[in-house]
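Q: Predict the assembly, please.
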Amino acid sequence: MRYLPHTEEDIASMLRSVGAENIDDLFSMIPTDCRMKTALDLPDALTEWELNTLLEGLAETMAVSPAYKVFMGAGSYDHYIPESVSYLLGRSEFSTAYTPYQPEISQGTLQGIYEYQTLTARLLGMEVANASMYDGASSLAEALLMAIRITKRRRIALSRLIHPHYRAVVRTYLGPEGYEIIELPSLEDGRTDISGLTGLDELAAAAIQSPNFFGCIEDLQAIGKAVHEAGALSVVSFTEPLAYGLFKNPGSQGADIVCGEGQSFGIPPSFGGPGLGMFACRMKHVRSMPGRLVGKTLDRDGRPGFVLTLATREQHIRREKANSNICTNSSLCALASAMYLASVGGTGIRELASLNYDKAEYLKRGLKGAGCAIPFDSPTFNEFVVEFPNGLNDTYSKLLEKNIVAGVPLARWYPELADHALLCVTETMGREDMDTLIREVRS
Amino acid sequence: MKEPQGTSGLILNEPLLWEKGKMGRSGFSMPRRDVVPSPLDETLAGDGPDIPDLSEVDVVRHYTRLSQWNFGVDTGMYPLGSCTMKYNPKINEKQAALRGFAKGHPLLPIELSQGALELMYRLERYLAEITGMDAVTLQPAAGAHGELAGMLLIHAYHTARRSRRSKIIVPDTAHGTNPASAALCGFSSVAVPSNEAGVVSPETVAAVMDEETAGIMITNPNTLGLFEENIRKIAEIVHAKGGLVYGDGANMNAVMGIVQMGKIGFDVMHLNLHKTFSTPHGGGGPGSGPVCVREFLAPFLPVPRVIHREGMYELSEDFPESIGRLHAFHGNVGVMIKAFCYIMSMGSEGLKRASQFAVLNANYIKENLKGSLHLPYDRGCMHECVFSDKFQEGNKVTTLDMAKRLMDYGFHPPTVYFPLVVHGAMMIEPTETESKEDIDRFIEAIRTIAAEDPELLREAPGRPKLRRLDETAAARNPRLAG
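A: Predicted assembly structure:
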């Protein structure tokens, strides 16, 4: 086997050195009744060339561009990734390193993550961002646990327009301890109804998503104000951070904790993972924050460098009293997003965000013209809800036959939205693709 | 010693990203604008992020220089105990990047995503076979996420039986994630000591196991690199009081094809695909932490689950007792693909050989270093061995000093000061992918270091880009963004 370098001679000489007759002797401390009597029942080993054939066959069954036009977002977005980003990310000095516990020989990862923390904090308008969480959903769950720790309260409010999967993950994380979860309903315009916050006591945090699951931009300032009046922390979640290239960032609107998914920045969808949990807060709360942090310091000769820091919050020091159990995070994805942001640049992010917005508006107008209803009139970014004129199922299957995936049907999460789908357009979708969709819906 | 591998070469300084940008540069091919601009509600518009503009060359040089300050498995031996830093096969990277997988949207209709679903289904079956368990979830994104899933499963199991249990037994050799994961489910940890042989005694468990205890979390082989030989007896004791046995599979690399944990008393365990199954650690992630369970716990597994019905792979949420969802989508599929490829490339025989060589290499290091370093548990080890700095104490040389000096010789240091039960611990896990020549060089380096001038060690490392960094100052005055 090409990954196993030992020759028969090596094995014999090493066994002699340890005083064992054969390899099985090395396992003699395992009681006989614990050892397997037969071999594992697994397929025969493949050659590299057979493996290629098998995986290509599996990958071919997946509906992706250019053969398919996929108008899906809902937490996973198809954006162009510069080849230079994929290339740099493949440098194995980054990918084959472990968590940078030994800073002297990990400065590449450490500076890269320090830069990621900085760019993330700037993008979200916050003071400090951590080195990453698993994904947007676990980031939200951890943000709410953090708010519970800070306020020592047991009740949280969640907008109904937060990604349904994120809300499900929150319920999983918060369930065993019995924290109370209140759902904030939605308004006719596709935004969250925050009137229920008034008079709520003992609230640790209220969380909303913007752009929300329907793609609508929430009034973050009004929400922040209402949450603070309830004495709670304002948590803002997101699934599409590119929106902050165009719209006001959550930090500037009073958010206390901002958390979400960074997959849009240089990370392929990969059937849902790995993604990037972005997580940021105010400096006054940094010691309650979960996850790893990279900080700047000096070496013995006074030269600047970076280390993992504030570890006393973490599981390997604090064990059961830690802020979180997280250890491995999404470090390489964080690095990818920093490479992506650096490549696109501040000017480029704004332009790209505008392009996403304009394309989505183009499709929205076209579909309206084709007889679709756009039920929510709040401003959106690159996705929006559509009601098809001839019912969802027929239109959806008819379009599938043309290799068009017409968004994500919403009824499974929002029963009142039968016949509605959430459609997404990014810069990867050309005008002809949108015109084809519009034409097919009309006909 | 012959000329050491560690040497000094030309690397370049590199400023922070925002110190080198210049307005008007770009490293991105902006897609064609084929639609007209649409009006935007000005009250919602922001100023755009304060991110520098760089050219493609700027970005490429920046990250190439940074990468050269890093040490990875591809650079050299990385014997970081409990982390299983084995070689990461390159072909697996290519498979995960195949367009169909990389561009696949997680909410695609199932008939348009059969390949990814089949791969996940098959990977679940293979991991079930390797662990001797019955059902698997691939959703957890890392080992600690898997531990949380496992604790939630145990919590749900007891709740379904209307049994309220508030404690969980955790040996003193456990990873810090164990008690932290248990705490998320409201379980308080009851620490039990390991005995003089470095393993947990059944009597110790019997003394604390009661009907308010949900179960035990036990790492096997444990973090001393020793097989928990009393595991069957311990499992009996825990089961007799209605508790469950959780296995931390961080050290599974020692026993593939040798022990099936599901057959020796474990009810639930997690695996780290980024350890045992060769996927790269990425400087701290992404990982993947599948959880394998026995049949009676399967109804509680996270949803959606991949099922196979009438020739189609499907995603089902129809498991009313499920603990719910743990990930925004299906877990880290990109990592699963690489682990699947590893298993397919190794086969049953290859995986067993990997474990055998991992154990051979660790024992070889143990035998060849025990004259130079103190070996607190002098018995046959599994895939890793734990030394201490006791012999060096007289010279005021610490484990940290020796670890730092190893860098100068071209090796990544072992895990240091863990497990906590060994004072000044140095935990060495060579893995099976290191050759005898590299291991011999490592042994020679440690022997040389053990006899070196203490002052040299306290000043180490000298060859990397930076010398020792002031971690105390970093924590006292946190500078976390530029």
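Chain B has two domains: 92-344, 348-464. Residues 109 and 326 of chain B are 21 Å apart (CA to CA).
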